[in-house]
Amino acid sequence: MKSWVATARLLIGLGWEIGPGLFTLYTVVTMSSFVSPLLVALGVRPLVDGVVSGESRQVVAGGIAVAVGLTFVLVAPIGYRWATIRMRERSSFVAERRVLRLAAGAPQIQHFERPEFLDRLQTLRREAPDLADSVTMPFIGLFVVAQLVISTVLLADLKPVLAVLPLVAIPSLWLSRRAERIRRRSELDAAPHRRLAQQLFMLSVAPSSAQELHVASMGDELLRHHREAADKANTIAHRALLRSVLIGSVGWSVFPLAYVGALVLILNESNVTPGDVALALALAGAVVSAANRVLDLAGTVLRVRTTAEHYFWLAHQAHPEPGTAPTPDRLLHGIELKHVTFGYGADDRLALPGTDLFLPAGQTVAIVGENGAGKSTLVKLLTGMYRPATGAVLIDGVDLATMDLDQYRQKVSAGFQDFVRYQLTVGEAVAVGGLSEPPDQVRTALSKADAGFVDTLPQGVDTQLGTSWTDGVELSGGQWQKLAIARALVRPAPLLVVMDEPSASLDPQTEAAVFDRLAAEARAGRADGRITLLISHRFSTVRSADLIVVLDNGRVTERGTHDELMAGNGTYAELYRLQAAGYR
């Protein structure tokens, strides 16, 4: 019962988000289409009897009821078409926003690496319009049931045995539920193949992959894989559709038989008036029509409930119970990883197999290690993107798992090697790092990132980025990276600043200049306890850090200053000398 109530609340919420006025109008015009059959049926009896007996009052009363019913029949479709067009224009965006909230609004990201989550997300994206198209269902359902009950009571008044006429919907309803289960299973089975086809399509049209695809002449190969994935998805869907249609057709065949049976019963009565016959025929048609609508509505309800279940499941997975512990305004002690273990998926190999690490407040800490050492995993845990399997990440002694992650992230900044190229204006692309920052702060961040090239752009910080837009400007890889660094520096007084390979797209001279500015920014942040975390494969850029930590298979094998580690003649000293020799 709770799931039905939750589904109804979801639909009403969608309708209200689309627009209260439009939602109300759409509901009214939809409901009016169900009123007309009942009005016509009620008006036919006095109209026919009045014509036969010559009673003008009956003719007038019946004529008015029939006229009003026919007016609904003629006028309601006009309002319904207009309201439907407007509803669908808005509902598609509302449905997309709901899915976007689930996908992008989650506090953590581990669910994006789970196939079940991605399959359900793919299914919800396909079926989200069903939710928006069914926003009136909580009201229409009650109205159709009321119409069926009233028509049945009036029909039973003529001949009690006809009260069983609505029962013809029961076997059809059962078959409809079975057909919906088949369709639901097929959607989940086809989701991985649809997702693959969609990924191949996006890969084929993305500018970032166009060069490599053309050089490798991958066009025909991508088409072949896309066709195979699409064929598999279509085969699963078509087989399920055929089975569900065959099952449903058995149930639908009951309705014409029921109507014919009611007609025979009525015509065999000897003491009925022509008006009674007309009323009975109209009511029988209304009852069968209402039962038919109930069955159709039941199928819609089952489909919508299935879609809503995907929505609720994704919402539960993406939004676990939030923490309540407050985030400190400044760090006094530091950040500590205590006996932390973490692994990806079902893989038994742990990226962090019991890691202990302390990052002192007010210091610049560099993390170095070979590929696969666990550096990126460490960053994901420190920024709250993942929770440890065991152990804890402590922020001034408070477990990060108990904290409000949204509040915590307001105090964290990060620049990544795989940065996002936001096709916004320059100012917007930088300000997004702090959600909404004033222009002066954006310019300050650009200066810290050595992004002076912005002044040479057509409209400066107001220049539109990305060639997919009219007058949009494309930047070089290094320029995009400088914007990413500026984005990481725009937030005022963060607790933690993470720079994960921030200079991968920069030449050595530019890299040195950027790191000098980052070092100055880190020194300026010492007073408020800020921790600056540097991750880089270039050892020359980390030697000035207050603390250097060497990771190997997720374990801390060395830690100290550059001079201490060089004197220790361990892994760090060996890798530093090898890299230095390569630059000679």
How helix-rich are the residues, as a percent range? 55-70%
Instruction: Tell me, rounded to a whole number, the average pLDDT.
Output: 78
Q: Main beta sheet, described?
A: 6 strands, mixed
Total DSSP E strands: 10
Number of helices: 18
CATH topology of the domain at 2-318, what is it called? ABC transporter transmembrane region fold
* Outline type: elongated
Q: Which stretches are poorly predicted, pLDDT < 50 over at least 5 residues? A: none
Rg measurement, Å:
34 Å
| Widest beta sheet: strand line-up | 6-7-8-3-9-10
**What would CATH call the homologous superfamily of the domain at 2-318?**
ABC transporter type 1, transmembrane domain
Examine the secondary-structure arrangement and name the CATH architecture of the domain at 2-318: Up-down Bundle
**What percent strand?**
5-15%
Q: What is the CATH class of the domain at 2-318?
A: Mainly Alpha
What structural category arises from helix and sheet content?
alpha/beta
Pfam families: ABC_tran
Protein name: ABC transporter ATP-binding protein
Subcellular location: Cell membrane
Membrane topology: Multi-pass membrane protein
